[in-house]
Design brief:
The two termini are 24 Å apart. This protein is 44% helix and 19% strand. By secondary structure, the protein is of the alpha+beta class. It has nine helices and seven strands, in the order αβαβααβββααααββα. Helix 1 runs parallel beside helix 2. It has two domains: 11-151, no CATH class; 159-246, no CATH class. It has a five-stranded mixed sheet with strand order 1-2-5-4-3, with helices on both faces. Strands 6-7 form a two-stranded antiparallel ribbon.
Length: 251
Amino acid sequence: MILRPGKTPGGAEVALVLRHVVKAIRARWPRVEILIRGDSHYARHEAMTWCEHNRVGYIFGLAGNRVLSAKIAELAEDVAVARALGEAEKVRRYGELRYAAKSWKVERRVIGRVEASPQGSDSRFIITNLAGTPRWLYESVYCQRGQTENLIKAHKLHLASDRTSCTSATANQFRLLIHTAAYWLLHTLRGLAPKTSFWRAAQFDTIRLALIKVAARVTEMVTRIKVALPSCYPHQTSWVRLAARATTLPP
């Protein structure tokens, strides 16, 4: 986890990060197929060109503009009419087009999603070099990045990794590394729970509050450490089982 300036990265910076990540993956698995999913700040000409030249699939969000809106104007009108005629409370349509910004050397495939609902109309765009129908690419490929964002949310919100209030960048980077170590500890602890257990899908703040921040009496002996939990602690069985599984892990 690297601390970087709080600004939108440029195309060269995005391409540099992708090169490092893909190189590390292919050093272990040279023939693996790689797909990069990201928000609109990844949709840089330099990054997409690098992916196209290095056998890497990508699907990125793309910020809307007047040109893109004009290209899907008929689709947006069709959606609005369909909802007005009572087709459904929320009507959604997909379309695709070829698009190139002024700084791009080639046109690329863009998927447009238009939706009309009681809250109004909404248009979203994604750009990709993948094959497939527009609806499948948007709903089943691009939107699946939500689980990845949940992992980032756990790191930032549940472990407060955004507390970088030191005056030194080095100190803030060290704090971020400590938060990342705590993330892996909780991730490992959650993975020790049985697959059908409540704890296997519990959020990190739940694990932290219910399993870790517990008052206990710790007695250090010659050959072992004894932890005495309160008699009214509601998760005694789960705590003991997780502790037993942890002792079987390799060093």
